[in-house]
Each structure stands twice: as structure tokens, then as C-alpha cells.
């Protein structure tokens, strides 16, 4: 493991988690739970097989992940985050929230997967009407599907399709995620190709965390 050789907690953190792909491996293990090597490879488009093997060995050596040989029918090694690795979740949330400002453009070669569609509303939105009745929103972006469930004042998400959603948002990732994350409004999302079917009023319940943070900053400034 390379080191910055600095007695600084930021430098020490980057010694362990600063290499290319490392935080994205942690992202996949957070989102998917215990993974086989092939699961991780599929969730990390573009990573070379030998580099993934190297990174997993480094992360295991650093104590961020554990490796366990699973019994049949899996019959292969399963990787999962250790307690130290799980402690990266707020770091990844903060990094993802900070990174929203760079999501204005969707590049032609960008990969996109269902688990990334699912975690965004769970991490970056809140229910503006916590006492409201349960509701189900179907998300579809680039053929990937995820479901938002509003219940008990919390936002829950899962992969797949809902049997009878109250609202369906279907379009390119930039339109779907841009609307949910507060980067664009409904009219702009429509120009990007978003279609909306069902109860549009539910959109007002999805409050982007970025807006909450901005409101807090405004109140502090006042």
C-alpha cells in the first residue's frame, strides 16, 4: 500500500481508501451487500479483472473488507464490508451529495445500473410530508428499474418493478435523477425526455437533501 507519509487523518484515510476504484468497491458492497467477485465486476464497469483482485486483497489487508468462502449453492468467496468498511457510508453519502453539482451532463459513454438509480433517492431525498399516506413511485431509466416507497415519513427503495405504482417516472438517467435530486425542474426534465404517468402531486413529497442543506445555510446566514 502506498502512503503519503503524513501524520494527518485525511492523508491516513487516503492511504487506505484513496486509490482508484477503492471507494466504488465500497459503494457496491454497501448497495449490494455481500458480493461474489463476479457481482463486483458487473457492478464496476470498466475495471480490469486483475486490478479488482489487487484492490480486494489490499482492502482485506487494510481491514476494510472480509472474505468468506460460502457453502453451496454459492460455493465461492463472498466479500463484504467489515465494521471499519461500513463506517465509510457517511463518507460516501457526503461525497455523493457534493458530487451532485457535477451531474449536469450525462456523457455518451457513461454506464448506468439499477442500484445507482435506487440509492440516489434514498440517500439524497427526504419525505416533505412525513405524515402522508404510503405511496409507491416507479423509476425507469435507461431500461433500469427501481421503486421508491414512501411510508412512515421515510424513503425506502428497492430494485425492480412495482405491481401498481401511484406514479411512474420514465426517461434518461439525467432526467430522472436530475428531477429527484433537485438539479432540474419538471419542465426541464420533460425536455430531456422524461414521461410522467400518475399522481404528479407525489413529486412535491420528494424534497432533495441539497435543498434542505441550502435552506439551513440561508437560515444560518440570516
Q: How many angstroms does the end-to-end distance come to? A: 47 Å
Report low-confidence residues grouped into runs of 5 or more.
214-222
Please, how many helices?
Answer: 10
Q: How confident overall, as mean pLDDT?
A: 92
The number of domains: 2
Beta-strand level of the residues, as a percent range?
A: 15-25%
CATH overall fold name of the largest domain: Nonspecific Lipid-transfer Protein, Chain A
Q: Which superfamily, in CATH terms, is the homologous superfamily of the largest domain? A: SCP2 sterol-binding domain
Polypeptide structure, described:
The chain has 222 residues and is α+β, with helices and mostly antiparallel strands. The protein folds into two domains: 9-87, Arc Repressor Mutant, subunit A (Orthogonal Bundle), CATH 1.10.10; 114-214, SCP2 sterol-binding domain (Nonspecific Lipid-transfer Protein, Chain A, 2-Layer Sandwich), CATH 3.30.1050.10. It is 42% helix and 21% strand. It contains ten helices and nine strands. The protein has helices spanning 9-17, 22-32, 37-43, 49-62, 83-86, 89-99, 114-124, 173-180, 186-191, 209-221; strands at residues 65-69, 77-81, 125-127, 135-141, 144-151, 154-159, 167-171, 195-198, 206-208. Strands 6-5-4-7-8 form a five-stranded mixed sheet, with helices on one face. A hairpin with a 7-residue loop joins strand 1 and strand 2 (77-81). The radius of gyration is 19 Å and the shape is globular. It starts with 8 loop residues before the first helix and ends with a helix. Mean pLDDT is 92; it is low at 214-222.
